[in-house]
Amino acid sequence: MARADSIAEVLESLVWWQRRLASLPGRPFDGISLTRSQIDLLFALAHGPTDVTPGRLATHIGVTRGAITQTIEPLAREELVELAPHPTDARSKVVRLTERARGIVRDFEADAQAALAPHFSRLDDEELDHLAHTLTRTTEEQR
């Protein structure tokens, strides 16, 4: 199979998975109006370092440094993130996920894993580990 054909096949599968994820019952943070960037930020904090500078978050989720403040402030008002002094740079702040938000992400992911597990039933443990590793490699430069 040509490389371009393989990439097209991966993209087709990703679109399929995106539809599955979008159709999961119960959305995280129900009742709170969040943008895609805000959701991306919350999941980045849930799976990344504990304390992250706004600039690093901006790069990670693909928004400008100017836009990151507009992304963070509503999350802080909803008590989903908190800003704290940077441990080594008094001029800077770090962003942290609150325990409330961490619990919401954890519960959503547990429910999503349970709902999506049947789609992985044809893969043995080694194949699933390989798939997870391979997909992670495609995003390493973004982390």
Topology:
Elements: H1 3-22, H2 36-47, H3 54-61, H4 65-77, E1 81-85, E2 93-97, H5 99-116, H6 125-139
Antiparallel strand pairs: 1-2
Question: Your description of this structure?
Answer:
- With 143 residues, the chain is mostly helical.
- It has one domain: Winged helix-like DNA-binding domain superfamily/Winged helix DNA-binding domain (Arc Repressor Mutant, subunit A), CATH 1.10.10.10.
- It has 6 helices and 2 strands; from the N terminus they run H-H-H-H-E-E-H-H.
- It has helices at 3-22, 36-47, 54-61, 65-77, 99-116, 125-139; strands at residues 81-85, 93-97.
- Strands 1-2 form a two-stranded antiparallel sheet.
- A hairpin with a 7-residue loop joins strand 1 (81-85) and strand 2 (93-97).
- Helix 3 packs across helix 4.
- The longest helix is centred in the first third of the chain and has 20 residues, at 3-22.
- The protein is globular, with a radius of gyration of 17 Å.
- The model has no long low-confidence stretch (mean pLDDT 88).
